[in-house]
Amino acid sequence: MTWLALWDRASGFVPLSDPEQLTTEGDRLLAQGSLMVEFQLPDGPSPRPLLAFAQSGIWPLRLALTVLPNGAVSFVLDQLGQVAHHVFAGCDTSRIETLRLVYAWDAPCGWGRISLECLSTGRMQTQPVARPKPWRVADLLAVLRPNNACRSRREVSLLGLSDRPEPIGPQPGLPGDLKVSTSEGDRPICDLRPGDKILTEDGRDVPLIAAVSHRVLMAGTAHPIQLRAPYLGARQNVTLSAAQRLLVHGAEVTYLFGTSAALVRAGDLPMPFAVQGIAAPKVDRLWQLVLPMGEPFQAAGLWIPSLTFAALRHAPEQIAASLAAKLPTSQIRRQNSASYPCLGAFDAETLLQARVA
């Protein structure tokens, strides 16, 4: 099971499995899967349709994603007269936010879910869907392909289609061969096992809860980039997801932002000086570490915050739908949220310029 296709503004429609098979199996029913949409909130006094698809005939279908004036997000799916509709609470329209909506379904199990995540804060909202219907592959591909039946505003940056329910919440963003500092020396992250001692920011060795991995869609907010050494202390060039956050220390951080350390998204670092785009597979297995209190760890000279599910810990159904589903619940509930501010793109560039100067 894997990602089948995507659409983004850089590449257009991209089949991720055999294109001929996708075409010839257009009438095949996809009994389970996920449809993912990444978009930014538009600003305006009236409802703004972001995505709309409608068809009649023997397979009538209507899909609509709309942002309301108060920042609320409306999702409507009508399949053969069965309607799934939910309006998610308003989001902050005073700043540029990227949201990720995922509609996941498993028709044989009679289960479905709509989730909306604010990627900058980790705030998650979910809504169950009872007895979802399967999708025709041809209809799903039509949603991804820009044509007369499907309208996509400029705020939509990514559409992705998977043949399984994808996990929601925090995602890994590191390559499997990245070497992590442990009590036994530097070791590839993919070789680490629960209980291994990981070197943390304050000089302690803490036991690893898990090294989690997942096949991630390398597009949209998670497009692949290469961080160039020696920026941020990197000892070598490192390829990672643009969504991966990094921890930055130093006198410049204290002087500019009044804090001992700050987080930056790798994708917000200035190009082509600190980071550069690279050609990479559209789907790749990425990794991250889960530590007891969400401590940062060191890898290739970089300080990287470990994966934390603190934003989901009071919602058991969200934990069960995330990559934390198979992790010890008692340990996940003890994790802390990030205690450092996360810089925006302008502040990240200002910091890098101050360091170079």
Automatic annotation (TrEMBL):
<feature type="domain" description="Hedgehog/Intein (Hint)">
    <location>
        <begin position="179"/>
        <end position="276"/>
    </location>
</feature>
<protein>
    <recommendedName>
        <fullName>Hedgehog/Intein (Hint) domain-containing protein</fullName>
    </recommendedName>
</protein>
<dbReference type="InterPro" id="IPR028992">
    <property type="entry name" value="Hedgehog/Intein_dom"/>
</dbReference>
<feature type="region of interest" description="Disordered">
    <location>
        <begin position="161"/>
        <end position="186"/>
    </location>
</feature>
<dbReference type="Pfam" id="PF13403">
    <property type="entry name" value="Hint_2"/>
</dbReference>
